[in-house]
Design goal:
Protein name: Limiting CO2-inducible protein B/C beta carbonyic anhydrase domain-containing protein
Number of domains: 1
Radius of gyration: 18 Å
Number of strands: 11
Oligomer: single chain
CATH topology: Beta-carbonic Anhydrase, Chain A
Mean pLDDT: 93
CATH architecture: 3-Layer(aba) Sandwich
Pfam family, one: LCIB_C_CA
InterPro entries: LCIB/C_CA
Structural class: alpha/beta
Number of helices: 7
CATH class: Alpha Beta
Strand content: 15-25%
Order of helices and strands: HEHEHEHEEEEEHHHEEE
Length: 248
């Protein structure tokens, strides 16, 4: 359970000001499960899929999805970007159960950010460490390169995921733009949404119904997690109209 936010008023103020409408992680997942049940998605007939950052502090999100949706196909990468690509996604969806002539999956794709108890954006105190570090560290590294004025565009196969994160993020920036960490995280969320909708366009709607859910995972003080919801797209021939968006 997340730490009550009223124990950390500066965190609560930053959350409400910078990411208004955020929900405690359990509330977000429960609301999603209830809304999706109205469209035929249940634990017994649905595969969970999760794309969040590899960061260990994002593991609670995967645990929560597994609690609601059972065994879950992992799509994690640095920054939460969909670096598994078309083949990885099609492999995952092929594991969705066939029930009543339909196959269903719910795909969560979220970058992450931290807010400390003092309201500092990006700061997180990891277990066993006495000094704050960053979340997302992968995005923060790209921002540090931007601030230095030196970006190495070469592909380093010994650091392939970070190269992809850099290229993804830079593709969404105007020349000379230097966003802060929250703006970069919002941009990452937008890129992940666009990539996901494009990649999931290869899924056969005659066979699959799916939900594609995006937002920002927020790590608060004392291991509390929140989600800033952004979109929930339903698609497939089993969905009225073949495609619709719902709100949590």
């Amino acid at each position: 359970m997340p730490t009550p936010s009223n124990d950390f008023p500066l965190f609560r103020q930053a959350l409400d000001t910078r990411l208004p409408g955020s929900l405690p992680l359990d509330d977000y997942l429960q609301r999603g499960a209830v809304r999706l049940a109205d469209h035929g998605f249940e634990d017994a007939n649905t595969l969970g899929m999760v794309a969040v950052c590899r960061d260990e502090i994002a593991s609670a999100f995967v645990t929560g999805v597994t609690r609601h949706w059972g065994k879950t196909f992992g799509c994690r990468s640095l920054g939460g970007f969909l670096l598994l690509g078309r083949s990885g996604i099609l492999t995952g969806v092929s594991h969705a159960p066939l029930v009543g002539g339909r196959r269903r999956f719910v795909f969560f794709a979220l970058p992450h950010i931290a807010i400390s108890g003092e309201g500092e954006i990006g700061a997180v105190y990891r277990e066993g460490l006495h000094e704050a570090s960053h979340a997302c560290g992968s995005l923060a590294a790209v921002l540090k390169e931007l601030a230095s004025g030196r970006i190495d565009p070469r592909t380093d196969f010994d650091d392939l995921e970070q190269c992809c994160v850099r290229q993804k993020l830079l593709s969404g920036l105007r020349y000379g733009e230097q966003p802060d960490l929250l703006a970069a995280t919002r941009l990452a969320c937008q890129i992940i949404r666009e990539d996901g909708e494009r990649l999931l366009g290869g899924v056969d709607p005659k066979v699959y119904d799916y939900a594609f859910m995006t937002g920002i995972l927020i790590h608060g003080p004392d291991d509390g997690d929140w989600v800033y919801p952004q979109s929930c797209l339903l698609a497939g021939d089993g969905i009225p109209g073949g495609r619709q968006s719902i709100e949590l």
